[in-house]
Amino acid sequence: MNDTDDRPITFYRLQGCPFCERVARLLEEYELGYRSRFVEPMHSERDVVKRVAGVRTVPVVVDENTGVTMAESANIVDYLESTYGEGAAATAGGDD
């Protein structure tokens, strides 16, 4: 589910990064299609991430569904939960 070019979410990550794995688990849990882009291990060589998100750290998620580009695993987890998880279901429920 993570290497085709027609996925609306692009996930910039580093192999073996626990923060990236946290985001990957949540993307899988919510069954969100995404495209993985593995970045250079050397922080100073992560130019692609710098161009996309303005930072050289990972993880970074670019969600074409909402136009959101976001870094930092805790922020990404909060965003995914509120947009696609139980937080989204609670706000979509209305005043029932």
From TrEMBL:
InterPro entries registered for this protein in UniProt: Glutathione_S-Trfase_N, Thioredoxin-like_sf
Entry superkingdom: Archaea
Gene3D superfamilies found in the cross-reference section: Glutaredoxin (3.40.30.10)
Pfam families (UniProt xref): GST_N_3
Domain GST N-terminal: 7-88
Record-linked SUPFAM superfamilies: Thioredoxin-like (SSF52833)
Protein known as: Glutaredoxin-like protein
Biological source species: Natrinema pellirubrum (strain DSM 15624 / CIP 106293 / JCM 10476 / NCIMB 786 / 157)
